[in-house]
Design brief:
mainly alpha
Length: about 100
């Protein structure tokens, strides 16, 4: 199952995504959250804390600036850029998925 949460700024997208992700993970559903927001705060809403959230943002910024290579596949993205947090939710902060393969998150 793939779920995207979209809407206007301030409409509660981050809160909705966090509640949905943690609820699914608590029920045993393997859950990956991708924070694609220009102001990525999903890590905070998921309970990762400020330091871990900032470290994910720093990785995304390094990729954007060319200091790190983009992941070549969904599996590589998860291995290199996702970390596990409360309730078993895995989170990656991304800005874009270049040349996505079919089935890429």
């Amino acid at each position: 199952m793939k779920v995207a949460v979209v809407g206007k700024g301030g409409s509660g997208k981050t809160t909705t995504a966090a509640v949905l992700a943690r609820t699914l993970a608590r029920r045993g559903v393997p859950t990956l959250a991708l924070d694609c927001d220009t102001n990525p705060n999903l890590g905070l809403s998921l309970g990762f804390g400020e330091e871990r959230t900032e470290s994910l943002i720093a990785v995304r910024d390094a990729v954007d600036e060319g200091d790190q290579e983009h992941a070549g596949s969904a599996e590589e993205l998860l291995a290199r850029f996702a970390i596990e947090g409360p309730d078993g939710v895995r989170l990656a902060v991304v800005s874009a998925i270049q040349n996505p393969e079919p089935g890429c998150p």
